[in-house]
Specification:
heterodimer, A: mainly alpha, two-stranded antiparallel sheet
Amino acid sequence: MNIKDLGPGLQNWLDDRLGLSAIMDFMKKKPVPQTRHSIWFYTGSSILLFFAIQVITGFMLILYYNPTLEEANASVGRIMTEVPLGWIIRSVHSWSATFMIAIVFIHMISIWLIKSYRKPREITWLTGVLLLGISLFFGFTGYLLPWDDLSLSATKVGTDIPRSIPVVGAWVTSLLRGGEDVTGDTLTRFFGIHVCILPIFILILLAIHIYLIQKQGMSLPLKEEVAKKEVRNIPFWPNFIYREMIVWLILVGILFTIAIFLPPSLDRQADLMAAAPEGLKPEWYFLFLFQTLKIFPAKILFFHGDTVAVLLILLGFLYIFFLPFIDNKPTEFKGKIITWSGYAFIIYAIIFSVWSLL
Amino acid sequence: MMARNSRMVVCLSLAIFLLTVLAPVSLDARQEESAQESQTVEKKAAEGIQAAEQDIAEKSQPAEPKAETTGQSEENEAAETIVPAPKNQKEAIGIYVFLIWIWLSIFVLIYVLRLKVKESDRIYQLKFFDK
């Protein structure tokens, strides 16, 4: 067999078994609309890129991390000081999480504003909101793993929030903590959730989400669809993929540059008996919720302020989750109000996050 | 084509210049910080050893072990914040070269990909594969 035949030969061998040519034909024919909103299409694949980077760096970190009360902080310290380039791997892991969550928010808001969740894409939206929730939970569980003063205090505050929910609140807090207080059990539990349970859920939901996107194709903006305008399309493969690759390259470059110049530090080992440090703040993506909880008074009529705040936040999440069903007439006045609620959400999140930092 | 090439050369030069100027400053500053940190830790460790020796001399019986839930030893309490930085000058230069290589590769790949985008768009507009 000639060496030149090896490429096509292997390709044919794989094609016979995996049906790759059918997939390629599908991708070549899949149209990607080119409108002024097309820039938002790049956010989806960018999320996948950062997720992949986190999986790879996560595997590397797990080789050295020890999720026990005595060793957690010290093992992260060893990763940063003894493991060759360990501090860069940890920094890339941490920064890619930040980038991923930021782009997940942008992706969700863009879909909200251009109303891509409308029929027949309701389930795609539902899986997307669940993926956002899982991403945030990834961030929350990962924050405790270095087991330093700040992460311990933030977890104490974070896991105490569900306690305000009537009936099931105390149980949820206890379930998260693995007891009444944040201890070594919480650390082990969070580690298990972070590396085992959440990845399973995220992979299942991602598979459904991507399948639905491939099945239904990219959505047209509402205006173009209503006006039945002729929109220029390009094939997904290779035209759109080449464009996506350019975005990925730029993002990878920015990620590595920031990860090298601004690596996260590690505080001393958490002391379970110590008081919470002053100026305690959660990760940036929880700041607006944190500030919302802070502004509520202790009592509102006959109810606890915390309970009212948590219930309002839950109501907000339910509104976002069921958005495609609430916005069932996107072209009418109700649809416009819902679009404006998206802008209101952006303004609220920015103002409250900045307020929390001041 | 010439204009595009010259634009690219300018961008590349700018990126290399920024990296050349900024990287050593930042890395050196962090190395100094980490050196200071390590000096402080060493000093504290020496003080800790002295204190421990005095304790041993004073007490005939060993002290009761601390509760396990605190999970802290005196050594850990003495530990300060770890500021990540390259271990030595060699590693710092290695990282710095790696970063330049990454950005150079990115610029070259973007240049190639832009050509590929144009080519694939042209072929698509010609409906080459439809025929």
